[in-house]
Every structure is written in C-alpha cells, then in structure tokens.
Amino acid sequence: MQALGFAAAIVGMLSLPQLARSQDARGAWSIGGQLGENFWLTEFQLRKLGYGGEAFARYRLSRPISLSFLTGIEVLRAEDPGVANVPGYLKLTAFPASLVATWHLSPAKPFSPYVYAGAGMLFFTRSDGSGGYYPNKYIRTSFLFPVGFGVESFTSDKISLTGDLGFRIIQDNSDLIDEHWLDSYLKVQIGVVYHFGISSSVDRDGDGLTDEQERQYGTDPNNPDADGDGLKDGEEIIQYHTNPLNPDTDGDGIPDGNEVFKFKTDPKKFDTDDDGLSDGEEIMKYNTDPLRADTDSDGLTDGDEVKKYRTNPLKPDTDGDGLTDGDEVLKYHTDPLKVDTDGGGVNDATEVKRGTNPNDPKDDFIADPLKLERGMTTVLEGVIFMPGADKFGLESEGGMERLFMTLAANPDFKVQVIGYRDYAGTQQFNDALSLRRAQAVKDWLVERGIKESRISVSSNPNKPLNPLGASAEDRAKFRRMEIKVR
Known about the structure:
single chain; alpha+beta; Porin; CATH 3.30.1330.60; 3 domains; 8-stranded antiparallel β-barrel; 4-stranded mixed beta sheet; 12 strands
C-alpha cells in the first residue's frame, strides 16, 4: 500500500503545470534529494518494504549528459524464520556512495525523461529482530551499481520535481546467505532539485551570446531571436550591430533579417543608397532599387524624382518625349512631365535635335509647312534620294522638315508614305528600293517625335510615270515619295 502511495504521488507530480524550460545548459550545477521505498531482493523468502533517501550534487557536462555524486541512507528489511544459523528477521542500515551519469532525453523541455547508470560502494551494518547488531557492529562494504529511469518536471527555472524507479545491484554478502552471486534492491522515490546559476560561458539558445550576456542586453536566453526579425541575437550584437530587441533597428519598415538576407540593405541605415527614400519606401511603395540611388539611370535620384519633380523613378523618360528626365531638368531646363514644354506644337526632343529652343514656342514651326488634306495624296517635294540607295540627298532636309512640321501641327493626321521607282535597273530591285526609301522617311519622322503608329509605308511599282528614254533629271523626279492622308 505504501508503494502505491508513492506511485500516486509521482503521478500527481507529473500533472503539475510545466512553467519553465529545463536547465539544459553545460556548466549548470544543481543539488537535490529524494525519498521513497525500497524492496530488498535476497534469498530470504519473506521480503518486506524498506525506506530511505538519497541526496546528490549534479553537474551538467553537456546538454544531454550530467554527472552526479550520490549518497544517502537505505533501510532494507527481510524475513525468513526457516533459514538455519541466520536470524528470522534481518535489517540492513546502508549508506550508498556512487558516481552516476544521467542521460536527459529531452534536455530543452520542461518535462524531461532521463535514464542513468553508475558505480560506487555500499557501506552497511546488520541487525536482527531484537534490534542488536548481527553478528557484530562492524561496518561492511559491497560494490554498488545503480541504474534506473525517471522524469524531471520543472516548475520554475530553479526548481524541478523528480520521480524515479531504480535498481541497485550489490554483492551477495548483504543477507548472510551466499547462494547467488548478487543481491539487489528496487527503489521508487520522488524528490526535489534546486538549480544554481549556470556558467557564464553557457549559451542555452545557441544564439552566439552567453546567458550572462543576454541578461546584460535584456534578451531572452531561451529564445535565439528575441525580437523575431530573422537574425539571432548574437548576430545582431556581434556581427551587424543592430538592436536585438527591435525587429527594425533603423525604422525603415523592413525587418533587420530581411535587410541582411533578402534585400542586402544596411539594417542600421534608414536610406541605404542615400537617394532620399527610405529602404522600406523603395521596396514596398515605389518598387525602386534600395541599393541604387538612381534606379532608372536617368540622372536624377529616386528621391528627387518622387518628392521634387514628381517623375517616375522607374522610367528614364517619364513624359516619353525622347529626352531623359535628367536631361530635361539639368541640361535643357524643360518640364519632364510635358512632352512639349513650350506648348508650341513640337516636342522637346525634336526641338533639341533640330536646334530650336524647347522653351520658346515661336520657333516651333517654319513659315511654309507642307499642305496636306485628309483623303488627298501629295508629292513630297524636295526630298531626293541618292541613286540606287535609301539615303537622303543633302538637299532633302528642307522637304522633310516641312513634312514634319505639318504632322506635328496636325496630331490627328495619319499618313501613308508611298515610294515610287523609275525603269533603271531590274523591277525586283526597284520595288524593294522604293519600299526601303518609304521606310527611311518614316524612320526620320519617328526619330524626331512623330508617333510610329501614325505612319505606314508602301511602294507603288506599277506607276513609275516615266516614259522610255526620259532624261536622268526626269528619272530623279520619278523616284519620288507621295504622302496620303488617311
């Protein structure tokens, strides 16, 4: 019945709330004591329950392994009235002393099973039913091999409760009957353990900081990442010099761990590339590169584009006029948000290319533009190509300028450029050449800012308009361009 009471006590102990983590760190010292009942296994036929207790001092060699020095007192009892030359009742008062190694199966848990084994000596005296020493009062010795298993349940960082079922192997001289090689006794016991401060070199959570250092910094020695930012506390303090208690040390909106591992930004610097935008704004709001001050390489920093000029930091030419935002702001002093800064009808890039002032509307158009009407076809006068080539002659610039001015002044016009040929050379060659020349006209216009979608090209090989034997001057005119407004 007493043994059942001890078992019930152990079950009750294990049901206590688990309030703390196990003292699992190397260098931890603890002391404890256990009380319980024993059962002496001897050649005596009538075995009786005994009682006793153990005390120990324990040192943690590593997270799973500890070493203890164990001592105590055990009262072992047995009866057998029928054994000749031996008292019918025998009691051993024994004092164990042993060194025990314990393997903690779940060293980082509040509820930690363990197994143990050890070796030592048992010092004892015998007495009979009358209470006198038998056969004398001399202290005798036996080797002692303790083995067993149990559980340790932590109720705080300093206190744990234990439940233990053990087996102690001793020599066959304890009961005065030498019929077997060994005697032994079983033990069931519960106890309490007190855990002292651990070594200053212990790092329970493996974060690179000792527990003593963690106490100094205010971090949790049981949590390797106190602020949950993706960096271990040791990495924050030793390597990156960030705050282990603040997940976003520089306050830029990005956790320190993401800055280090994902975006490669500086977790201590609000604006890594010094462009006037925080790293968080660049990554989460504007999608710019937090490592490049000028993401679109237009000559303006991302911060100036967003906050000062209101341009697009991802687009080098925000207004699509053919000039980069940087050139407009820093070089030509035009508006990077307006295609035609002076409102004169010609876009900024075209004015720059042809040498007029993009800030003066008076020079946008020449006095004599090409006359174009919707639905009509007009010969592009003054545009001459080099013989057998799609290159403009030197005298063609004026004619092309007139065409450009007309299209710039009429942005709703869509035109078809039609190339014609003469009879010199093969038909196949001339047909292809006519089309290339029409394409050259289109390319010239597009380069100066006319939208490509407004211009189509074709050739008309069936209408050379030159009789056989026409002069070279006439044939040059036959190699003409016509503009049809659609």
